[in-house]
Amino acid sequence: MSHVKAGGSSKNIHNNAGARLGVKRFGGQKVSAGEVLVRQTGATKIAGPGTYISRNFTIHAKQAGVVTFKKVKKAAFTGRTHPRTQVCVE
């Protein structure tokens, strides 16, 4: 027989702040170097020319310019392609 008492349910634990993810600068907007363009979890959008991706998958502008978005096909390790949005600064 178990000697551990039944654990109660905790109801007041889901009060975390949101992560504030999403697109921060939209297509056609002017940006300067280093600005955050997209905050994301995982590489749902990929970095194109004029941008770079940081360790937490945030996409930044590498240079000053205008933001553009385009649809590309990204090959996975298995060879299958997945549609992705590429973020560029021109």
Using brief descriptors, characterize the structure shown.
90 residues, mainly beta, OB fold (Dihydrolipoamide Acetyltransferase, E2P), four-stranded antiparallel β-sheet, four-stranded mixed β-sheet, 8 strands
Summarize the model shown.
With 90 residues, the chain is mainly β. The protein has strands spanning 22-23, 30-31, 36-39, 45-47, 51-53, 59-61, 65-75, 81-89. The strands form two sheets. The protein has a four-stranded antiparallel sheet with strand order 1-3-6-5, with no helix packed on it. It has a four-stranded mixed sheet with strand order 2-7-8-4, with no helix packed on it.
Structure description:
It is a single chain. The protein is mainly β and 90 residues long. The chain has a domain at 28-89: RNA polymerase II/Efflux pump adaptor protein, barrel-sandwich hybrid domain (OB fold (Dihydrolipoamide Acetyltransferase, E2P), Beta Barrel), CATH 2.40.50.100. The chain has strands spanning 22-23, 30-31, 36-39, 45-47, 51-53, 59-61, 65-75, 81-89. It is elongated and about 70 Å long.
Which fold name fills CATH's third level, the topology of the domain at 28-89?
A: OB fold (Dihydrolipoamide Acetyltransferase, E2P)
Secondary structural class:
mainly beta
Biggest sheet, open or closed, and with what strands and sense? 4 strands, antiparallel
End-to-end gap: 69 Å
User: Which percent range fits the helix content?
Assistant: under 10%
Strand order of the largest sheet: 1-3-6-5
Q: Compute the number of helices.
A: 0
CATH superfamily (homologous) name of the domain at 28-89: RNA polymerase II/Efflux pump adaptor protein, barrel-sandwich hybrid domain
Q: If you compute it from the alpha carbons, what radius of gyration comes out, rounded to the nearest whole angstrom?
A: 20 Å
Order of helices and strands: EEEEEEEE
Highest CATH level, the class of the domain at 28-89: Mainly Beta
Mean pLDDT: 92
Form type? elongated
CATH architecture of the domain at 28-89: Beta Barrel
DSSP strand (E) fraction?
A: 35-45%
The count of DSSP E runs of length 2 or more, i.e. the number of strands, is 8
